[in-house]
Amino acid sequence: MTQLATAMDRRAALAGYRTVSLEARVAAADPHTLVAMLFERLTAQLRAAHAAAQDHDNSARLRATERALAIVDNLDATLDQKRGGAAARHLHDLYLLLREKLLAGDAAGLGQAVDSAVNITAAWRQIAPQVR
Fold first, then answer.
1. Contact at 8 Å (CB) between 44 and 67?
2. Residues 9-24: pLDDT tens digits?
3. Percent of the chain topping pLDDT 70
4. CA-CA distance, 42 to 46, in Å (whole number)?
């Protein structure tokens, strides 16, 4: 077996492990943790889009943007506008802003989107003990 084939087998095994690990985390997670996982993934995709925009790598920026938009759409769809009150309205407005920054695609706006996602993720972690 060549070194390349061995390296590819290792990468495939790691990718499979990550998938199983993520599926196990999702299956065991409460709703609050699931949203936290989405915020973390959103932040990672925004960072990837931001880095790609800085590097003028439009292909990578578009891939990360597409993934980030899907996460934003999922988060927005989970909002209960009737019971959520002002918090739901503010989150909806934040999601609109994130969409706007993602669709604009410029590095400065994507940097602002990263900052917003980092802040909302931190705030979400802070309320975790109160929810459980």
1. no
2. 767 666 665 554 556 5
3. 77
4. 6
Q: CA 48, CA 41: separation in Å to the nearest integer?
A: 11
Collapsing DSSP states into helix, strand and coil, what is residue 35? Answer: helix
Helices (H), the chain: 3-28, 31-54, 58-77, 81-104, 107-131
Among 115, 107, 121, 113, smallest CA distance to 95 is for 113
38 near 75, Cβ under 8 Å? yes
Q: What are phi and psi of 96, to 5 degrees?
A: -65, -45
**Prediction pTM value:** 0.77
Q: What is the pLDDT of residue 30?
A: 84
Query: In order of start, what are the domains of the chain with their CATH numbers?
Result: 30-131 (1.20.120.340)
